[in-house]
Amino acid sequence: MSENEKYLLKVEHLKQYFPVRRGFKTIPLKAVDDISFSVKPGETLGLVGESGCGKTTVGRTLLRLYQPTAGRIVFDGDVLFDSGEQYDENGKVVLGADGKPVIGNKVDVNMLPYRKQMQMVFQDPYSSLNPRMTVEDIIGEPLDVHKLYRSRDERREKILGLMELVGLNAEHAMRYAHEFSGGQRQRIGIARALAVNPKFIVCDEPVSALDVSIQAQVVNMFEELQEKLGVAYLFIAHDLLVVHHISDRIAVMYLGKMMELADADELNENPIHPYTLSLLSAVPIPDPETARKSKRIVLEGDVPSPLNMPTGCPFRTRCRYATEQCAKEMPQLTDRGNGHFVACFNK
Amino acid sequence: MGQENNYILEVKDLHTSFFTDTGEVQAVNGISFNLEAGKTLGIVGESGSGKSVTAYSIMQILAETGRITGGEVRFHGEDITKWNKKQMQKFRGAKCSIIFQDPMTSLNPVFTIGSQLTEAILLHTDNNKKQAKERAIEMLTLVGVNEPESRMKQHPHELSGGMRQRVMIAMALACEPDILIADEPTTALDVTIQAQILELMQDLQKKLGMTIIMVTHDLGVIASMCDEILVMYGGRVCERGTADAIFYHPAHEYTKGLLRSIPKADNMNEKLIPIGGTPINLLQMPEGCAFCPRCDAAMKICLKEKPQEFRVGETHIASCWMNIKELYEAQEGERV
Ligand SMILES: Nc1ncnc2c1ncn2[C@@H]1O[C@H](COP(=O)(O)OP(=O)(O)O)[C@@H](O)[C@H]1O
Ligand SMILES: Nc1ncnc2c1ncn2[C@@H]1O[C@H](COP(=O)(O)OP(=O)(O)O)[C@@H](O)[C@H]1O
Ligand code: SF4
Ligand SMILES: [Mg+2]
Ligand SMILES: [Mg+2]
Q: Is A197 within the bounds of a domain?
């Protein structure tokens, strides 16, 4: 992506390691390992990959629910975090004469003012909302925290406005969260996220727990809110058809690394990375004719443990195109034209 | 008992209820279908529509408060709802097995894979211990568990989700059942692992010639696995027919709505068309069609009368008044 293209969020070489105890040693679990991407204002970037690949960690790190291990996060023109490493054009860390990375300007801002602009919606509408709070108080809480009203009346007006926005009946304001169905709880969750008028929302599997017939209602709501408010989403989900439907672009992760990133239609029609290919071919298509014709590329085995990360390209242990080079180094994410990025030596 | 047809299983007007403190929950309310040996039947519907209870009723493994209150389940022509405990135990061991969404429902965390598999085989066959152990290893190999000998010594928690699912399938198939019921077997798995398990089930079906009942809410899984489909809503059958009939010529408004609401190749850049309203509450069943409160096409008759089964194709049946819409509108005038 060209440097001057407009983006809302830019992430560079982001790493999120968790210290894990193994016997007497503490070793790093590399949940997110050197990924870069950007999100444009008002767009939806889908994020897919098998469970344990680091999708949730990416979302939570962006919102600074974790302290990033390394990398740089730029939001709406402001650098929120920078660990100071410099990178050359091949994506390698620039080393000084002493063989250690050259460290430039470090940045680590206070996130409180940015919390208003970056929000999160969770998978489980059952556990992410306090069942003993009324809808009015759940949606009102962020308004209270950020002092976004001058009078009780204005508070109530805002809450009712938000409820209407997400298609909740105003009469339900005094009901408790546990009285609502899954789809309605997800609406409450998003009304709460929208209360502070954010520019960016991380949606972590927001429709995965919902019934098919309700899923469509909630997917439409996300799409309509974006049209109305211009909010950008990082949309994490494991249902690739839902992600394709809602996303402008899609990023594919495997074991903490970014494997492919492209326009949503382009990724689905012309997937290049071997991992994306097998992921897409595994999706059962709701059409018997297509199902009879298509052959699944069945991936052998499971995702390896991130504590046992293969050297080089982490996908090589399940990849049918793997060569010697794949075991030696991780391929860089390179532009194959039209903003279609792929990290693979052989495809 | 006479056996003029090829049906391995015939379910006739099955009713199952739970008797709870708040009253009788009619979870399955008049389900009928026939299933030919070697075929795969898919049961699809949203959660709470009675898919699992239908499956559990066939096997008679209902919760204590649950009871079959009417209808028949014929296995090779014999009504097994009349069978005693011992006969049913034998049925469950050797004729019909079930696998669940959560493998830990069937696996015991404190015993090794090997001891559980061998135990199941000893219980349901006249194998001796050595034979049973060999058979267990053979089954693990069959379902694609690598290094089966060393897996035999492991406990369930030492295996990944996909591996546990395979072990559960091995356990279910150890006695070569005629029918395998799979209740959302891949719902908790990643698509890649789901593909492995579905591929495995199709392979085993070819090899062993078994009949499969696939219970799922996933229309993709249904389309890629099933010959016949039963669409359920509120404990009733909306529609049943071949996969092609259901997907290409749906004749119940709920099925049509379901197909419109999912993302697929041809609606990626259009708005999805959701089914409105909220899922059904079995304790407040509408008088007429169960789907009526959420149906955009509902007519007056839908409010009042439970739709009968209309035959819309040779093997295609739908319980929806829309199938006589012209006739009805000619007599009654406008819609609601
Ligand atoms: N707080 C944490 N501490 C240690 N390990 C973690 C933590 N959060 C996530 N992980 C590990 O990081 C990896 C990525 O997890 P996650 O981001 O939740 O993946 P996904 O959302 O793609 O399923 C997993 O191996 C997970 O076990
Ligand atoms: N043990 C039980 N006691 C009372 N009601 C039950 C019990 N099991 C199931 N039900 C009810 O029966 C209905 C159908 O349930 P089920 O067959 O599990 O649905 P599905 O498998 O389609 O999601 C549900 O409304 C559920 O509440
Ligand atoms: S880099 Fe190598 S191992 Fe990785 S996906 Fe490409 S071919 Fe396969
Ligand atoms: Mg996650
Ligand atoms: Mg069920």
A: no
Instruction: State the nearest Cα–Cα gap between B64 and chain A, in angstroms.
Output: 27
In a domain, A296, yes or no: yes
- Compute φ and ψ for A46, nearest 5 degrees: -85, 145
The structural domain count of chain A equals: 1
Q: Is residue A38 part of a domain?
A: yes
Size of interface A-B (CB pairs under 8 A): 130
CB contact under 8 A, A282 and B194: yes
Phi, psi (rounded to 5 degrees) for A200: -145, 130
- The predicted pLDDT at position B175 comes to 82
Which residue out of A184, A207, A212, A268 would a mutagenesis test of the B interface target, given it has the greatest number of B Cβ atoms within 10 Å? A212
Spatial distance between the Cα atoms of B198 and B176, rounded to a whole number of angstroms:
18
Determine the residue of A317, A330, A347 to mutate for testing ligand 3's pocket, defined as the one with the most ligand atoms within 8 A of the Cβ atom: A347
> Is residue B89 classed as helix, strand or coil in its secondary structure?
helix
Q: What is the ipTM of this complex?
A: 0.89
Rg (CA), chain B: 21
Which of residues B322 and B334 earns the better pLDDT score? B322
Q: Is A269 on the interface with B (CB under 8 A)?
A: no
CATH assignment of the domain containing A35: 3.40.50.300
Mean pLDDT of B102-125: 90
Task: Find the A5 Cα to ligand 4 centroid distance in Å.
Answer: 30
* Whole-prediction pTM: 0.91
pLDDT for residue A1: 46
Structural domain for A281, as ranges:
3-117+238-342
Per CB-CB distance under 8 Å, the chain A contacts of B279 are 181, 211, 213-214
Give the span between the Cα atoms of A264 and A250, in whole angstroms: 5
Q: What is the pLDDT of residue B102?
A: 87
Assign B4 a pLDDT band (cuts: 50, 70, 90): low
A96 domain residue, yes or no: yes
| pLDDT tens digits for range A268-280 | 999 999 999 999 9
Give the C-alpha separation, B226 to A301, whole Å: 25
